[in-house]
UniProtKB/TrEMBL annotation, chain A:
Protein's name according to its UniProt entry: Anamorsin homolog
Short motif (Cx2C motif 2): ranges: 228-231
Family statement: Belongs to the anamorsin family.
Subunit relationships: Monomer.
Known function: Component of the cytosolic iron-sulfur (Fe-S) protein assembly (CIA) machinery. Required for the maturation of extramitochondrial Fe-S proteins. Part of an electron transfer chain functioning in an early step of cytosolic Fe-S biogenesis, facilitating the de novo assembly of a [4Fe-4S] cluster on the cytosolic Fe-S scaffold complex. Electrons are transferred from NADPH via a FAD- and FMN-containing diflavin oxidoreductase.
GO biological process entries: iron-sulfur cluster assembly
Major subcellular site: cytoplasm
Ligand binding ([4Fe-4S] cluster): C217, C220, C228, C231
UniProt GO molecular function: 2 iron, 2 sulfur cluster binding; 4 iron, 4 sulfur cluster binding; electron transfer activity; metal ion binding
Subcellular locations according to the entry: Cytoplasm; Mitochondrion intermembrane space
Region of interest (Fe-S binding site B), residue spans: 217-231
Motif (Cx2C motif 1): 217-220
Swiss-Prot/TrEMBL domain comment: The twin Cx2C motifs are involved in the recognition by the mitochondrial MIA40-ERV1 disulfide relay system. The formation of 2 disulfide bonds in the Cx2C motifs through dithiol/disulfide exchange reactions effectively traps the protein in the mitochondrial intermembrane space. The N-terminal domain has structural similarity with S-adenosyl-L-methionine-dependent methyltransferases, but does not bind S-adenosyl-L-methionine. It is required for correct assembly of the 2 Fe-S clusters.
From TrEMBL, chain B:
Gene Ontology molecular functions: flavin adenine dinucleotide binding; FMN binding; NADP binding; NADPH-iron-sulfur [2Fe-2S] protein oxidoreductase activity; oxidoreductase activity, acting on NAD(P)H
Entry binding sites for NADP(+): T485, S551, R552, K557, V558, Y559, V560, Q561, D593
Residues involved in FMN binding: S14, Q15, T16, G17, N18, A19, S62, T63, T64, G65, D135
Reactions that this protein is recorded to catalyse: 2 oxidized [2Fe-2S]-[protein] + NADPH = 2 reduced [2Fe-2S]-[protein] + NADP(+) + H(+)
Superkingdom, natural source: Eukaryota
Entry keyword Oxidoreductase: yes
Sequence positions that bind FAD: R407, L408, F409, S410, G441, L442, C443, S444, W631
GO-annotated biological processes: iron-sulfur cluster assembly
Gene3D superfamilies registered for this protein in UniProt: 3.40.50.360, NADPH-cytochrome p450 Reductase, Chain A, domain 3, Nucleotide-binding domain of ferredoxin-NADP reductase (FNR) module, Translation factors
Entry-linked InterPro entries: CysJ-like_FAD-binding (IPR003097), FAD-bd_FR_type (IPR017927), Flavdoxin-like (IPR001094), Flavodoxin/NO_synth (IPR008254), Flavoprot_Pyr_Nucl_cyt_Rdtase (IPR001709), Flavoprotein-like_sf (IPR029039), FNR_nucleotide-bd (IPR039261), NADPH_Cyt_P450_Rdtase_alpha (IPR023173)
Domain Flavodoxin-like: 8-153
Upper taxonomic lineage: Eukaryota, Viridiplantae, Streptophyta, Embryophyta, Tracheophyta
Name of this chain's protein: NADPH-dependent diflavin oxidoreductase 1
Length: 256, 632
């Protein structure tokens, strides 16, 4: 199914004949004249037409909204052809204007033929598998436009930081690494302190220590909060001296 | 200040609980100073639309290692960044910011710094300059907090002496006085209690009982969404991961017993985990409580305005103590906060225990407490067992024991493919502490323990919520990136689109998955392969694709971002056709690495600069076409 769209009041029949010579193979066509009165909307579903042909008397009638509508109703990979008559005193090249509009809306394989009396611009709607052939021609450095609603328009949060903020922060002044038992190793420690802090000294428990635990310091049975760094019982629940140590445990995964 | 709320609001954004600790301390000191109305709230429970109606707000925010705000701040912060708010939106708001950060990182306290500036730009007035807590300081963040707080109270008092009428209590606190708990427990004779409150005869009763138990918990602050939407039964519990590297990823299939479960792809399932009854009993015994007694929880004194967020009417429906503990108090998983140790010290009869607890609660003992408590994932029960002479009254336990939290999971099924079922893809969390104790995630291990054939009566109290990822329309091309359990929501999207494809035309999907190797953790292998062959929606013939990065199958590591670069033409083709990008998985470096790869793809395929590509992707994010959902 093809769509023939014009802003003119009527369409010469020979145009339809000419289209066949352009390779238009569709059996049927929908013809819409005076499309300016449609308010930029077509009442057809997405990906409905195999070809769209647009005959423009005025280039300005080709708004961005129309270009998106045309894209919407085109099947992926299908072609749009736009023809417009050359107006003698028109400064800007009409074909490049039309080309730009097509490219910005995501059409690919855009090319134009400039005749003496009219120009014809062709473009294809992007088809998923032809992504790799996106032409990097003259207007290649344009990225698809993204519409933002009022709600999604956010300020750039990095602009909230000052010059000062962006500089490397100063580490707090410390007199001596040894000040206070809770002094941490530096982030890029080279003296080995970081390693020492990481290592948890854990001596293996012997069978004897498990069945008859004793404690010279008296703290081993009290629980991790009271045990020294090197205590062999570290990690175990509290126990009574002389009584077999239970491994408490991770019976979290047990039956409910 | 017409129409402004006359209260001191403390809003915090905490990642590991430190900012919450600080916020609660700020609240406590304000109350000690006689402030008539104090409210402490987490930022994700606060509606930013109502910020202009506040008169005085103290913000306490952490900054994570990558310079980001905590997850609980994301929505609030995004709102504040809206361009259309205007420079007088917060006129009349007096505020102060305290940040928790680490000067060892380049992006030191970025969240607090940005917040402070933005608030001013929006018209709010700072009471004092922002305070910046630094982990690198010998006393940690207290080094900055103590003087900053003092300055805050003095300035506030100077500006308006009605805010802190008992200022002297802050300046010269009576050292050994513990304030009273915020709540009191009323015990009710069982004869008083109405029949339906004691007897659970059906699902409706059970849902109601769960709601009543949790609405009575002050720590849940009435933010609990009421009754469970569903009580689900586990019908399938299947291990998806093989191999012995200790990872355990499961597929859970859940079905409602007597209703129909309604949801859409992208939704999340919120689950209330069950606690091991042995632990609940041990806790009750240790605290010398009567499990069968009936209780209600009331504010300590009737007049306090701070109870406005508390759900009332609880005195009409006493709940059994054991039910309350089991459904609302986390006794064997979450670690208590520093204030718990402080209060414990007042109730320790053994001298060595009292000293240790006071030390843990002091600034000097902060590191040791961190090693003992947080790093070891100490549970409330373990702490109480390590300090046997402490007899904490139930009032304090109710206030201080961490509330039993519900957990969120992305739903990995489409209702079109599995009507009346909810599928989850869950990794059973397991960590090894420095002292070589193995800790399991409470909810994931509880779900993993449910045997469909044996535990028929065990039900999963659940809620359905809209997720952060909106469901994509059928004609929207998709680029999905979900390594590991990040694939969970995408299995749902792909199932849905495959069903839609039977009746209408759909746009293609590019899916990038990552795992270690195909023999151990290639989750849902057959499913992805089925859809990527025979003209399926993931097939290249249809314009889509399925690409897997196996990180450990070769010498060098291969991740999803490498696959994205390999397929740069395809990715650009779809992006150029209006595709939306969805990224999901565990946080840390993956999102940043993938974003970098996407920037490279955009720059390379379109010919623009890296900077322009990065800006374009940021705009895509703002427009909702680049969505990131990560979890830790």
């Amino acid at each position: 199914m093809a769509l023939v769209l014009t802003d003119e009041v009527s369409l010469p029949l020979r145009v339809i004949r000419d289209l066949k010579s352009e390779g238009l193979n569709e059996e049927e066509a929908v013809v819409i004249t005076q499309c300016g009165s449609l308010g930029g909307k077509l009442s057809f579903g997405d990906a409905f037409f195999g070809t769209v042909f647009v005959l423009l008397s005025k280039i300005d009638n080709l708004t961005d909204q129309w270009v998106s509508e045309i894209s919407r109703v085109l099947k992926p990979g299908a072609q749009v052809l736009l023809q417009t008559l050359l107006v003698p005193d028109n400064q800007a090249k009409p074909s490049s204007q039309i080309e730009r509009k097509l490219l910005i809306s995501g059409f690919v394989d855009v090319q134009s033929t400039d005749g003496s009396q009219s120009v014809l611009v062709k473009g294809k709607k992007a088809s998923w598998s032809t992504g790799s052939s996106f032409p990097l021609k003259k207007t290649a450095k344009v990225l698809p436009k993204i519409q933002l609603s009022d709600e999604s328009d956010l300020i750039d949060e990095d602009s909230l930081l000052s010059e000062e903020d962006l500089k490397k922060p100063e580490l707090p002044l410390v007199g001596d690494c040894e000040v206070g038992s809770t002094r941490k190793a530096c982030k890029n420690c080279t003296c080995g302190r970081a390693e020492a802090e990481q290592k948890v000294e854990k001596l293996q428990l012997t069978a004897e220590q498990i069945s008859n635990p004793q404690s010279a310091c008296g703290n081993c049975g009290l629980g991790d909060a009271f045990r020294c760094g090197g205590c062999p019982y570290k990690g175990l629940p509290p126990f009574k001296l002389g009584e077999k140590v239970s491994f408490g445990g991770d019976f979290l995964a047990a039956d409910i | 200040m017409e129409g402004k709320k006359k209260r001191l609001l403390v809003l915090y954004a905490s990642q590991t609980g430190n900012a919450m600790d600080v916020a609660e301390r700020v609240g406590r000191e304000a109350e000690r100073g006689g402030c008539p109305s104090v409210e402490v709230q987490s930022m994700d429970h606060f509606d930013p639309n109502t910020l202009p109606s506040e008169s005085t707000v103290i913000f306490v925010v952490s900054t994570t290692g990558q310079g980001d705000p905590p997850d609980t701040m994301k929505v609030f912060w995004r709102f504040l960044l809206k361009r259309n708010l205007g420079s007088s939106w917060l006129e009349g708001l007096h505020y102060a910011v305290f940040g928790l950060g680490d000067s060892g990182y380049q992006k030191y306290n970025f969240a607090a710094k940005k917040l402070d500036k933005r608030l001013q730009d929006l018209g709010a007035k700072p009471i004092i300059e922002k305070g910046l807590g630094d982990d690198q300081h010998p006393s940690g963040y207290e080094g900055a907090l103590d003087p900053w707080l003092m300055s805050l109270w003095k300035t506030l008092n100077h500006v308006n002496s009605t805010i802190l009428p008992e200022m002297s209590e802050i300046l010269h606190p009576s050292m050994n006085k513990l304030e009273h708990p915020k709540f009191k427990i009323m015990y009710h004779a069982s004869s008083e209690v109405v029949q339906h409150d004691t007897h659970i005869s059906d699902l409706k009763d059970m849902k109601n009982m769960i709601e009543r138990a949790r609405s009575m918990s002050p720590s849940l602050h009435g933010h609990d969404h009421g009754e469970p939407h569903y009580l689900l039964k586990m019908v399938t519990n299947k291990q998806l991961s093989k191999g012995d590297d200790g990872r355990d990823v499961r597929q859970f299939v859940l079905e409602p017993l007597a209703s129909v479960v309604e949801y859409q792809v992208g939704d999340v399932l919120e689950v209330l985990p069950g606690q091991n009854p042995a632990f609940v009993d041990a806790f009750i015994k240790r605290c010398k409580l009567d499990p069968d007694s009936y209780i209600t929880i009331e504010p300590w004194s009737g007049e306090r305005d701070a109870m406005d967020s508390y759900v009332n009417g609880s005195s009409d429906h006493p709940i059994q103590l054991r039910t309350f503990v089991s459904r609302a108090m986390d006794v064997a998983s979450a670690s208590p906060r520093r204030y718990f140790f402080e209060v414990m010290s007042y109730y320790a009869s053994a001298e060595h225990e009292k000293e240790k607890l006071q030390f843990f609660a002091s600034p000097e003992g902060r590191d040791d407490l961190y090693q003992y408590n947080q790093k070891e994932h100490r549970t409330v029960l373990e702490v109480l067992e390590d300090f046997p002479s402490v007899e904490l009254p139930f009032e304090w336990l109710v206030q201080l024991v961490p509330p039993l939290k519900k957990r969120l999971f992305s739903i990995s099924s489409s209702p079109l493919a599995h009507p009346n079922q909810v599928h989850l893809t869950v990794s059973v969390v397991s960590t090894m502490t420095p002292l070589k104790r193995r800790r399991y995630g409470l909810c994931s291990s509880w779900l993993a323990s449910l045997d469909p054939n044996k535990n028929e009566e065990v039900l999963v109290p659940s809620w359905i919520h809209r997720g952060t990822l909106p469901p994509p329309p059928p004609m929207l091309p998709l680029i999905l990136i979900g390594p590991g359990t990040g694939c969970a929501p995408f299995r749902a999207y792909i199932e849905e689109r495959a069903m839609q494809n039977l009746v209408e035309s759909t746009a293609p999907i590019l899916f990038f998955f990552g795992c270690r190797n195909r023999d151990s953790d290639f989750l849902y292998q057959d499913f992805w392969l089925a859809h990527s062959s025979d003209d399926g929606i993931l097939s290249e013939e249809k314009g889509g694709g399925f690409y897997v990065a196996f990180s450990r199958e070769q010498e060098r590591k291969v991740y999803v971002q490498h696959k994205i670069r390999e397929q740069s033409a395809r990715v650009w083709g779809l992006l150029n056709a209006g595709a939306a990008i969805y990224l999901a998985g565990s946080s840390t470096k993956m999102p940043a690495d993938v974003t970098e790869a996407l920037e490279e793809v955009v720059a390379k395929e379109s010919g623009v600069s890296r900077e322009a590509a990065a800006r374009w992707l940021k705009t895509l994010e703002k427009a909702g076409r680049f969505n990131i959902e990560t979890w830790s």
